[in-house]
Amino acid sequence: MEVLILGAAGMVGRKLVERLVKDGHLGERKIDHAILHDIVEPQAPPDAPFSVKTLMSDFSVPGEAEKLVASRPAVIFHLAAIVSGEAEADFEKGLRINLDGTRHLFDAIRAIGDGYRPRVVFTSSIAVFGAPFPDAIGDEFFLTPLTSYGAQKAIGELLLSDYTRRGFFDGVGIRLPTICVRPGKPNKAASGFFSGIIREPLNGQEAVLPVPEDVRHTHASPRSAVGFLVHAATLDGDRLGPRRNLTMPGVSVTVAEQVDALRRIAGDRVAARIKREPDPTIMKIVEGWPRRFDASRARELGFRAEESFDEIIRIHIEEELGGRFVE
Prior knowledge:
- Helices cover 41% and strands 18% of the residues.
- It is an alpha/beta fold.
- It has a domain at 2-179 and 221-247: Rossmann fold.
- Strand 2 (25-26) and strand 3 form a beta hairpin.
- Helix 1 packs across helix 7 and helix 4 (91-112) packs parallel to helix 5 (148-165).
- It is globular, with a radius of gyration of 19 Å.
- The model has no long low-confidence stretch (mean pLDDT 95).
């Protein structure tokens, strides 16, 4: 079986590659070949039990998507996107990458025809929802995005459902909560501070908190994000029916509860490295985000996430810091 990963150089993409290398299969199907694609060249794993090809291009350029699917990969992970803050700051770029790129990919698959019907796993976002919110957003809540990024992801979800209905491919869309704690350097996502206020203090650095501590949000670890992707790739499509987009489970906490968890695990000195600097732009974006979900359908279908924010922090310390942090 051949697997194609778009966005393979990103944090979640890299961790997905690591998981596939470790497992060597998806469900009961052995992986024979993987194509790793991104706007920058992904790093090929040296110890993969299958052959790996890396490609670097802009998949939103007409004609590029056709090259990526020409070998008819059986599973396609579509992780490629620009993040929320960047999509809001650069409207044209958000449209080109998040919307046009997705459409080009879907149409390239459709154009092959001849019985080709791959499983397409599309990473959407909780940004597809917009205020006013109930206490917990259930599976029946409607999509009213309040950001350009959310609108672009919502359109991608609709296209995924329609192309699946038409039999062009077998799609599953997963709405990711904020993935936290993200390793590495901060990105341009408006949600980046959720990771920063944990990651930087654990590394002995000061972190900026741009929103009030009563802000509530839903999180899952990078480990859970990869688990969502793998499960979506192997899920029986008949169990999904026509409703192809799912809100993933996660841990709903306030910023104050995040800080309390950090203090419990790492101590007062580490938690004191968080610096409060209100940012009206970030605050306005965050105000339009959902806070809590009732992800019953995803859980019934076997998707799993952490049960506490303490667990998310411990996973970061274990996987990214070698079990140690700067006290």
